[in-house]
Amino acid sequence: SVSAAFWEHLRHLGLQDFPCGVGSWNKSRFDADTSSRGGQPGLGIDAAGQEAAVLLDEESPEALMELLHDRHSPWALPPDCSPQDQHLQEMAVLAPELVRGSNVFQILRSLRIIGKGVEEVDEGLLQLHHLEELILSANQISRITSANLPRTLKVLELCCNTVADLQDLCSQPPPELQHLGLGYNRLCSPSQDKYLTAAFWPNLVSLDLSFNNFMDLLGLVSQLSSLQKLRVLVLQGNPLALIPTYRGFLVDSLPKLSILDDVHIGPDERHQFHGLARQPELIRSEARVVVSIGEIKGVPDPSPRQQLEVGSEAPVVTYSYCVTYEF
């Protein structure tokens, strides 16, 4: 589940272990009783002297932070870690009580669980009352229940999973969601088109449906046209993207769109395709694929051997090849 992966992730961050958390390396800074303790009997050390002695054995916050940030340090996070992980570790040094136990739920704004074999989005996520970004890419999620998602979510990324049905996700979707990433899943039309409307996603600005199995361009566009705030759309990798008039029809049908398939839509392109949305008859149930063969290895090239003199009666050897593609 996501919750299990989350706790394992926190354990990996070592928020309670050196140089984070509270221990012999910084205990006096967080021990309210330090200043009130006197010297031990028979040692002849007053309270101030004992506190100074303790501090000599401890690390300053600056030194502990350096251990987190120095790329040669064994406690440094990998370069590709999220800003949220860095923030949690820094807080565990400066204010460890804020990331101890369930307190961490109050400060998390972003959660990234990528490639951890997660199959279930459980209700444990509801404890993250301020979560705005949830990244669950490259897992094994086939269905996701929206009732288990925090209502504060603005970004939900489910790329590279096995989602085939959006019904459960759309039962109580997060009302403020601005980006929905569903690329590289198993969604198909027309059964899923009806869930991609403003009735479920009134504030959606960015939508990624790339590399699924959407085939009905007209049906999909009729649903997407209700998303009045949509500015970024990714549909590449679907069968409908092979239709010759695919891009032009989308550009003219969704006039508020700014970026389609990671390519900016400029005024010239809008002018070029103006009126195409009113000609659905141009969208034929066929695809056009152009294949260019740059080089074939492992077969002889006959061209250098055929340079015979004009009128030569020498025998000519002809080669022919059959190249087969399976789609």
For the biggest β-sheet, the strand order reads: 1-2-3-4-5-6-7-8
Low-confidence stretches: 33-54
Q: What is the ordering of alpha helices and beta strands?
A: HHHHHEEEEEHEHEEH
How would you sum up the major sheet? 8 strands, mixed
Calculate the mean pLDDT score and round it.
84
Keywords: Leucine-rich repeat, Repeat
Protein name: LRC43 protein
Organism: Ibidorhyncha struthersii
GO cellular component, one term: cytoplasm
Show the helix and strand layout:
Elements: H1 2-13, H2 27-30, H3 47-56, H4 61-69, H5 83-94, E1 110-112, E2 133-135, E3 155-157, E4 179-181, E5 206-208, H6 217-224, E6 232-234, H7 246-253, E7 259-260, E8 263-264, H8 267-272
Parallel strand pairs: 1-2, 2-3, 3-4, 4-5, 5-6, 6-7
Antiparallel strand pairs: 7-8
